[in-house]
Amino acid sequence: MQTTNILSHADKYAEEIVTIRRDFHKYAEAAWREFRTTSKIIQRLQKEKIEVKFGLDVVNPDYVWSYPKEDELKEHMERAVGQGASAELVEKMQGYTGAVAIIDSGKAGPTIALRFDIDCNDVLENSNNDHRPHREGFASVNKGFAHACAHDGHAAMGLITALVLNEVKDRLRGKVKIIFQLGEEGDKGAQSMVERGVVDDVDYLIATHVGADKKGVKHTLYASVAGLFSTTKFDIKIKGKNAHAGARPEKGNNAILAAAASIMMMNSFLQDSNGQTRLNVGTIQGGTGRNVIPGECFFRMETRGQTTEAEQRLYKAALESVASACKVYGCTFETEKMGFAPSAEADPELVKYIMDGCANVPELGAIKEALINTGGTDDITLMMQRVQEKGGKASYMFIGTEQYGDAHNGDFDFNEDVLIAGVKCNLAAVCHLMEK
Amino acid sequence: MQTTNILSHADKYAEEIVTIRRDFHKYAEAAWREFRTTSKIIQRLQKEKIEVKFGLDVVNPDYVWSYPKEDELKEHMERAVGQGASAELVEKMQGYTGAVAIIDSGKAGPTIALRFDIDCNDVLENSNNDHRPHREGFASVNKGFAHACAHDGHAAMGLITALVLNEVKDRLRGKVKIIFQLGEEGDKGAQSMVERGVVDDVDYLIATHVGADKKGVKHTLYASVAGLFSTTKFDIKIKGKNAHAGARPEKGNNAILAAAASIMMMNSFLQDSNGQTRLNVGTIQGGTGRNVIPGECFFRMETRGQTTEAEQRLYKAALESVASACKVYGCTFETEKMGFAPSAEADPELVKYIMDGCANVPELGAIKEALINTGGTDDITLMMQRVQEKGGKASYMFIGTEQYGDAHNGDFDFNEDVLIAGVKCNLAAVCHLMEK
Amino acid sequence: MQTTNILSHADKYAEEIVTIRRDFHKYAEAAWREFRTTSKIIQRLQKEKIEVKFGLDVVNPDYVWSYPKEDELKEHMERAVGQGASAELVEKMQGYTGAVAIIDSGKAGPTIALRFDIDCNDVLENSNNDHRPHREGFASVNKGFAHACAHDGHAAMGLITALVLNEVKDRLRGKVKIIFQLGEEGDKGAQSMVERGVVDDVDYLIATHVGADKKGVKHTLYASVAGLFSTTKFDIKIKGKNAHAGARPEKGNNAILAAAASIMMMNSFLQDSNGQTRLNVGTIQGGTGRNVIPGECFFRMETRGQTTEAEQRLYKAALESVASACKVYGCTFETEKMGFAPSAEADPELVKYIMDGCANVPELGAIKEALINTGGTDDITLMMQRVQEKGGKASYMFIGTEQYGDAHNGDFDFNEDVLIAGVKCNLAAVCHLMEK
Amino acid sequence: MQTTNILSHADKYAEEIVTIRRDFHKYAEAAWREFRTTSKIIQRLQKEKIEVKFGLDVVNPDYVWSYPKEDELKEHMERAVGQGASAELVEKMQGYTGAVAIIDSGKAGPTIALRFDIDCNDVLENSNNDHRPHREGFASVNKGFAHACAHDGHAAMGLITALVLNEVKDRLRGKVKIIFQLGEEGDKGAQSMVERGVVDDVDYLIATHVGADKKGVKHTLYASVAGLFSTTKFDIKIKGKNAHAGARPEKGNNAILAAAASIMMMNSFLQDSNGQTRLNVGTIQGGTGRNVIPGECFFRMETRGQTTEAEQRLYKAALESVASACKVYGCTFETEKMGFAPSAEADPELVKYIMDGCANVPELGAIKEALINTGGTDDITLMMQRVQEKGGKASYMFIGTEQYGDAHNGDFDFNEDVLIAGVKCNLAAVCHLMEK
Question: Tell me, what's the ipTM?
Fold first, then answer.
């Protein structure tokens, strides 16, 4: 294969990729709700006659976390159609977003999966003129939802990568699966795709993320992210009993005290020689009135760890802290798992292939082996784990670029030049792997 | 004076007092918002040419707790007018509800104040047919506000007591002030009337509350409430700093942890040989997202004590707990006092007068010296304290009756027979005091 | 009976009672270890041929709290003999101190029990010349043990009371039991006597305590102590697992953290409408080295309550706090009950008899119905409860006197004039009860 | 230089090095108390006319942590002399142990320092026959003190290294300083030597530690220890006020509650993206009696961190937790720093020299770049830091061997074959550095 020739195919999409990214940005959709985004992806792929699977073909509904209530979902479907999604496609999705495009060369060769996430954040986008999306009219019209982690760009990259690979299909070997993953934020969605078997046949899995390089350098490729943390996202709902705080305080079962005691206890489990850990009770809400012993308290929390072992130990200690504090205060509790991702490490052999392959990408200023991650999570690790368990190899590329504002904030934006660079990195890695 | 004759004057109001109580019940208004109730009281008094003071004449705006924001207040004024308040009177109130009727005999004699509170609770009234107010069409039309502590009855009693006293004015000595107190719930309103001097000239202060007798007996008069607790109502707003919970947890200042630690600490200050104490963090709300170190946490709380000394010690310990926990977690905090009432004890001499005077009330089944209170509060204690400081005497009568549902609950109601009985107890006490 | 005549019999013991008290003071013995004191009491009683029971006749060894280890006990027996106890009597005690003298008139009449406690405190007595026992040579020679709660005086009073009653036996009716109770400090000993049936036949039980009157007035008799608190004394031993604090912190089970968390939690159970409560973790000891996750922690604690119900609720909450915190930190725990006394109230009828009878005691300056207790405990309540359960009546007299230093402190002392006064109060009460 | 020849000089000391190690083992001495060990070292060096400095020449008394009280020190000096130390040398030490031998070639060249620590642990040595030191009669005769971290071996190695270097002095360039460091356990002693300038002139600093290799392999040289943690050792003494727990609990200032609250709070500061951290409250002791609000509480604690930055943040948070909890409970506190070591990293260039040089050591089975440390600390880092600040280079070698029992436990022992291997590693490194 002539990788360089193939890469240059991407250049003609330089304008379209920006248009697509901005369209996704404007109609930002959060986890499990990406009906319009998915519809647009499918339509563009089908226009080129690219095989695409979606709905229950790519998601196993028995393995979903944080899945919305029916009413809310219906509302989002209707909004999506109102904003240009195909009503027919949305119906066919049967409530599950995400899609997988398949470029099959028909020839023997490896199966390579490329992962691109497509959901936005629960963030209110900035509406001042310092913020380009607002200034140039592509800021999110869905209030409270915004692409503040570049998944709009990832989705656009995935689409253009599929188009290019489709153009050069006869020059490829094996098969490429472009995974448009739903619900990466909160580590909710990957599991449902993994449990449908989406990566069970995959020899090489490569995921892509763009973001600010520490030194502000443009377009450095990190061929892997080292030290992806394990994480569990979960909710706790403590149920006690109200009582008059003056007249009969001893008749109450104080859910806020149970929460406070459990929060103090769980925070004392953070030291572990198996790696750094994190614990956060991010939100809390409880009680009904000042003079009523509070009979309920709800909190959203998460644990993280450099190793799954350390993280799971902390997760269990947090649950035990809640269970025991509830026992002390005569309360009961319910917990719901809202997301999970294990820790994972890239396979050095694949990292090397990526580095070698990407040497051909002219947009890159530097190529490095690994970005050292501290504390971040991505449920791509569930896919990596499955691929590695089945004998395949996986890595998670990070492409440094100019970034404006912090990730997960209303003023986030990035230099769109990285989009074509990202497409080319994926193409280069695929070509090099097929050549081997 | 012939007390018995005077008492019988009340009987002709038996129907009107129920009508008034149900009207107040239907248009329930919470603390600082009793514009319609106040307007109706003033109008009825003025119809009989009874002197009545209100607005800034009875409230000192420099001493208000939990006073609503301007917008909200305006909304309530408009609602009140829409529900039948006099627009002219509401305007004259200048934002402050409550009223004081004055029945001046013109003859030498004691000044006696009778206190009736008029505000409702922040409670959603029941809407099933087991609940008489709903069944008979006088349930609250103001959603989320309901008379669940009989203040509708108290207000009606005060009004009829004023009418009767006015009828027999020439037979009286001295002066009677009927205080229609705003905002008793949450111990918010009495201070503003005390600091306007409403009770500065009072020789005898008698307050009235109706409620369930422990033994279910109907119409027992307790000539005093013993052991009224001191209380402080206050809010705490902790301000920390958000940070990414995975990437840079140490950059955050965790307001939920500061809250949890302070709550645990303040709860360890409840033993005091100066009397029983109570502490309650009734509601809590904090944080913005699961994966963000929470930068703010807000809670509503209260302290109570058998003695003001014990309560104030606890209140200070609670504030110090918050201040110190905030220091540990690098947070700051603001606190706002939302209500206060000291502890107070009735004067035995006045209690005896009430008992003797009420021996003439035919509706009473029994007369007792004192109801032993545990944990309850009423900011009438601020008025009692002021009267006692000035050399006067004070007591708080409790009239037992049949009660349905618990106080401060959506299904609260009571047997309206107690209304005329309550009027007569006030009349009997006034007459007996004037005779002495 | 001529009470006054009988009272005057006490006067001739004015010198001996001081001698006895100082002897007991000098050889102070703590709970379960009062071998010498018991021996001296028995010897003096037997010298007058007064019937006296002791050892397993007055103590049920199945109901002992905080009973010392065998070695320690033996040491104390030997010390006692070395300090003048009868070796023969000590052997007959079979390890259990305390005694009951019986003055049986042989005539029909009530059985009256008088309780005097005899143990000292675990306190180091002052050794400066401001402290009379030191100055006058009767300070404790048993280091770390001192009579700092007047039980030396109580024991002397009981002895002289027995001698006087014995002298006038033919003038009495019924029977008097003088109970020399072991181990009152820490509420340890009464149970063992109650469970041997010592008060099962008692119609009237009167206990005596001397102490400072609040107003410093000398010799006021309070015919009862109102509001004796319930209490449980108990130890907690938490067992975790040591681990290297740097290398493998997660391998440890941190007993100090389990203790800290449980202490914070148990302190949040102090509000109860059933009465005031108290909780104290009085001592704590844990861990082995700075850099070792501590695998053990031990603490001594107690709960108290105005009512047994409130106290027992708190006691259970404390145990549950420990149990649950241990579960969180992977620890186990053991608890041992070291003492217990319920709350108890005097019988008004008996209180009246005591007041009337003691009107004849010339040494008294005033006679009052009740001393209001706040927070104090005495396991006389176990005896009171048993007597009351069996249909008898009980009270606990308090005789105010001049006091130097605080109770339970090394500088405690009192005006010995109260001793004969106390004897006479007991005699007067007995005589009046027999006259009725 | 012919490194190999020089190394072979060590072989003749194979017997003596074991004898010395066992002698130090038998007369184990803890930090600041190593009078006999120091005396023996000095005597052996002086026998060979090797220059040796000690006492105030190598220790700055203004920079000592955990220094014992005078009485205790005197006792240890006397014990040391009784166990064979030179009384004259002990006196010359002026209270400060440790020594520095100097082998000066007189020729130009680098100054190389080799550090060997000499203190034992506060550990009770096993006395059963499974434990070789006991079986073979060299177990510690100083009860409660035992070499359970191989410093006896390190001291012996240092001594023999000095002897060999002295023998071949004329073949050397530059200067070698053999530092016999006092008080490494608890990170107490290095500071006092650093602040006397002991390493101020050093170009290369190499420290040695022996211990179990993870894989059980014998004699692997790790040319550096990566990730030495920073640590602070400190004591906290909380002072409150006693009060009767029943009668006047509110009069007390509860030091145990202050301790419990501060312990819970400080344990919530363990997550830090600057590296892993550790916190341990290793021992606690507080209170005087069960029924006394505890007026004092003392605890020994430490913090650790992968980076000094993370550790110091935690240390400050711990102090602030104590300060703030004391404020809440009306207590005061004192804190004393008992030891400190920063984190430190080896210089790669020196690591390479060590690896290359040690290639000549026949006893080694493998040579690796770094042992990854997790959680361990050694105040050698203070020396490393000083050397690096002055432009020198430093590393900390770890020599894996067969180990019996865990470090810091009473059954610790190791295969003494490592002793000569360790001497040769030091010699090889020195020679290679001088050759460069």
Answer: 0.91
